[in-house]
Design a protein that fits this description.
seven-stranded parallel beta sheet; 45% helix; binds nicotinamide-adenine-dinucleotide
Length: 276
Amino acid sequence: MYQLKGKTAIVTGSGRKGGIGEAIIMLLAQEGCNVVVTDIGAPKGDNFSKEHIGISSDMSDIVDAAKLLGVKAIAVVCDVRFEDQVSQLVQHTVRTMGGLDIMVNNAGVGYIMEPFTEFKSESWDAVLDVNLKGAFLCSKHAAIQMKDNGGGSIINIASQAAKSGFPFAAAYTASKHGMVGLTRSNAVELGTFGIRVNAVCPNHITTGLGHWQNKFFSEKLGQDYDTYLQAIKDKNPLGRTGMVEDIAKAVAFLASDQAAYITGEAMNVSGGEEYH
Ligand SMILES: NC(=O)c1ccc[n+]([C@@H]2O[C@H](COP(=O)([O-])OP(=O)(O)OC[C@H]3O[C@@H](n4cnc5c(N)ncnc54)[C@H](O)[C@@H]3O)[C@@H](O)[C@H]2O)c1
């Protein structure tokens, strides 16, 4: 449907089962695209406990599932906060897969929430370093590669928090607004090389990250988990929360030639919850 046969995509933060990254990998693979599953792989520091990250065994399982669809798939451990690791990720991809056509910046930290007047400087850095600096580094090294090879597509997984504010989430919200700025700046600068840059802005999806946020906000509001989740669904014009597949379809479309004249967009995939 999206004609991605023979292309190669890197999806950061795609090593966690049930996550948006895994769904993107599987849909791209289904469309014939060779895929690189990359994630942090093992807990690194207090902010990256096993509860919140994509681990190596999950990465291998996702690679195996993609290979069953008949494409090339590899797993690469990469912490997107570090430029040397990102550069190696891109170089290894080009060496092993023969090129790089699609970079999806999906890695994100959404479980560090604090009241603003108590927001720790380290917490701010932890969120911004992954969500925004990580997207910058991955976009930079993807663009270095794509610019000499006729172009490509960079897609940033932002959020509804890239367009609206959320309590206790100053760092997350600022990082996601920043991703849209990065998208727009890169779209106007890199278009001349045939590189399109877009963002996708999901509303709530109950992934591992989304589940943590549901627990956090339901406790803050003094509601039980199910009541809180139902209230989110009720306020959505389409009466449900997002699904990982909704985001994967938007990514496959933006990555494909069907979106050949679309760049600099920050596309809401939110069931009508966000519309600007
Ligand atoms: N779930 C939602 O409701 C929702 C809504 C809007 C946007 N998003 C965004 O979608 C993206 C995917 O989130 P998800 O809900 O699938 O959660 P998830 O926790 O399944 O995925 C996030 C992934 O990022 C990885 N990651 C974290 N730090 C990293 C680092 N330093 N280097 C490399 N990888 C790192 C994690 O290991 C994890 O696999 C995130 O950017 C998130 O902000 C999610």
